[in-house]
Here is the input.
Amino acid sequence: MTACSSNNKNVNTQWWMENTQFGININNVWSQTTGNQDIIVGIIDSGVDITNKNIKDSIYINYNEIADNEIDDDGNGYVDDINGWNFYDNTNDIYTAFTSDYHGTMIAGILTDKDYGIAPNIRYLPLKCFRGSEGSIEDVIKAIEYGYDVGVRLFNCSWDTNQYSEELYEVIQSYQDAIFVCSGGKNYENLDLTPVYPACYNLSNIICVGGITESGDIYEFSGYGNDIDIYAPGADIYSLMPENTYNYSDGTSLAVAIVTGAIALAKSIDPLVSCEEIKERFSESYNDFNNLNTLDVNKLCFGN
Here is the structure.
């Protein structure tokens, strides 16, 4: 286990990391681990600019593939897939442009940025399925299958759709030992009445996430309702952007990444912790200040 770096810059910029009423209570966990490299998070999203020095050491590397020789060395059907795959364009180029790939880069930063991330010592696998907001369920299914074969057992899904897909339901259901952390929506709707997917599939290996603000209110565009398993910070989050830039951003997407990172820390401590156990610990994280189950990383990792 590796203790969190004493020069971590997040102290003055990341309200959500502080041990406040609505912060995630992470310091005690960081004293024991900032992640284990055996934990690989599959980021099903837009592309990731992996050149930034703060996340490049956390990128998954396929050592069974020889870079740039235009040969499928490992025989998995993907040529030169050293750092994941671009399913949208069917290429190994996992980054296209700032405007189309800032979202995936931001998620990778929240997870593993050495100065501003939650679990900098885990690894992430870029699974580019979107160009901006454009993408297909077919590509998502391919990404899940690819990631699972690589060894991903924790997927970050910071996106949602109103369209139910039986094919997506079945592929998630088939990988019961993998956890899918999913967005509870971006339209401030009651998910009991207006479900979004994959977050609202009735599957035991899905975790549905909502966002809250620094004051503990539900983020203005987050979904809500009984399907939400846990609320996490989703407003005024400082994170990496492409081309070595940073910015404050809002969105349920960010809350999803924070929850995924917290689960990665829990799995770094106890690799066998199940999704059922994680949900049970989330149910014990009721916050009297805002009457919601809000993320407490200490409770998640240690059950207290």
